[in-house]
Amino acid sequence: MGSFKLGGMTFGSLFKKPETLLYPFEKKEPCAGMKGHVVNDVSDCILCGMCQKACPCQCVSVDKAARRWAIAPFMCIQCGSCVRACPTDCLSMSPEYTPVDTAKYLNEFEVPEREKAACSKAQPTK
Length: 126
Description:
By secondary structure, the protein is an alpha+beta fold. The chain contains four helices and five strands; from the N terminus they run αβαββαββα. It has helices at residues 2-13, 50-54, 81-85, 116-119, and strands at 37-40, 60-63, 68-71, 91-94, 107-110. The strands form two sheets. It has a three-stranded antiparallel β-sheet, with no helix packed on it. Strands 1-4 form a two-stranded antiparallel ribbon. A hairpin with a 4-residue loop joins strand 2 and strand 3 (68-71). The radius of gyration is 23 Å and the shape is elongated. The relative contact order is 0.20.
């Protein structure tokens, strides 16, 4: 009985497409809701530091004086706490994995100075 089942699976696999992919050349679509790595839209960042306070593994650092935002991607556990804590929604989780590398590195971003007119809310005229 077992040999008939094995023969049927073997014969059936001749006419189906293979289950595996040739990885470097073909990439699998990420699953819905997959957490890959944190992405920062620095044009909306106000350097409030809420993401740094919310990060349980201390991989996010915010330096207001130097106007820098940094993340250590190999220390990040992809919990999404920083994304939920961001008041301006400039952080998001990208579904792609962190690229493979031979050494750990730090992703640093310089946050541009925001214009005073764009930052302040328009006062209604009477």
